[in-house]
């Protein structure tokens, strides 16, 4: 089975970047050679991770990174998106951990040698525990510690990085981590969710300043996730419910960046739930970025609720992935078109998109045709958004390989490469082969296959 796109699609052009993505905690392992982070602590807390697993070994990428980069190269991708573990590159006193920095420099140099662009994310959720012990993202000082980390690391990496993203999905760090309690550090209070979101965005703004200074030739920006919100019925109440949910879960993180303001919903929050915002914060948060990273997996449907304003509805009978997320590619196109209409956007990169499926590796083959079809439909959705005028310059499959899926542990597989955790064997799935074939089928690829 193949993934096919229209011949004249922008996705077929040389200017379009195809990549694969991972994140430090989800693949690296090597727990002993870095500081303890909030996810280590969360994993050690009973009943937080569905299979009671942790990131101590994960995909053992710390030791297998050379093989993994060879694998990435074999797929023919243009770019690799990965994240830096803050607690691997800095010591507790903020000084550089040279061994950790050298690990990433090794990766960056190897990528350069193989002509693969490095898309580096500075924060994909693995906050050092000693910073959490001082309040984590509830403490305004953490934003300044992040700025210092961004400063030191961007200096250490020199000109090796094609693109820096400050944060991955501040929604997940703040809402899931501090408000809903299902991600590390597992706190549960509305006020915490809102305050941590503000400090994360502030951290983004502060880090952008140092990235633009230290690495002016990189594309510097942020990665946000969106789960578009749809009304269950066309009643005014449900439409209003979906709008409120959208403001709370999606616009909350993008509007400050482009409009220097939070959604109006801020004023409707109880005074004790409103974040403390200092003069000048929104100016810092809203400085220009070179690209916006968009992560998309699914949509959500809402209805009005007398008590809470809005509640999510689980639609019966709709197609879902193995993690229970509805498959709805049209929502992807609609999202991209609507973001483009609402904000004055820089170029967009789709920094994550993919599906969890219940894969089985039989005789060295993984015939994940359901995932392949997900990619077919979602790449088409991206193409449709481009046709409607959205400036999308790249697409990254989540994920390069199966890995530690946060609260789901190792139970959910998102890779286009299968990982047998016991033997640490990697097997390219049918979806990975189709993705690779699509990339290699581009007309210009023959000029560019000296990798
Ligand atoms: C995103 C995360 C990524 C991965 C996917 C499935 O929210 O950024 O690490 O877990 O979901």
TrEMBL record:
PROSITE patterns membership: GLYCOSYL_HYDROL_F1_1 (PS00572), GLYCOSYL_HYDROL_F1_2 (PS00653)
Enzyme class: hydrolase
Gene Ontology BP annotations: cellulose catabolic process
Classification via SUPFAM superfamilies: (Trans)glycosidases
Keyword check for Hydrolase: yes
InterPro entries: GH (IPR017853), GH_1_N_CS (IPR033132), Glyco_hydro_1 (IPR001360), Glyco_hydro_1_AS (IPR018120), Glyco_hydro_1_beta-glucosidase (IPR017736)
Active site positions, chain numbering: 169 (proton donor), 352 (nucleophile)
Catalytic reaction equation(s): Hydrolysis of terminal, non-reducing beta-D-glucosyl residues with release of beta-D-glucose
Molecular-function GO terms, alphabetical: beta-glucosidase activity
Signal peptide (UniProt feature, chain positions): none
EC number(s) per entry: 3.2.1.21
Binding site for substrate: 26, 124, 168, 297, 398, 405-406
One Pfam match: Glyco_hydro_1
Superkingdom, taxonomy of origin: Bacteria
Sorted UniProt keywords: Carbohydrate metabolism, Cellulose degradation, Glycosidase, Hydrolase, Polysaccharide degradation
Cited Gene3D superfamilies: Glycosidases (3.20.20.80)
Entry similarity comment: Belongs to the glycosyl hydrolase 1 family.
The protein, known as: Beta-glucosidase
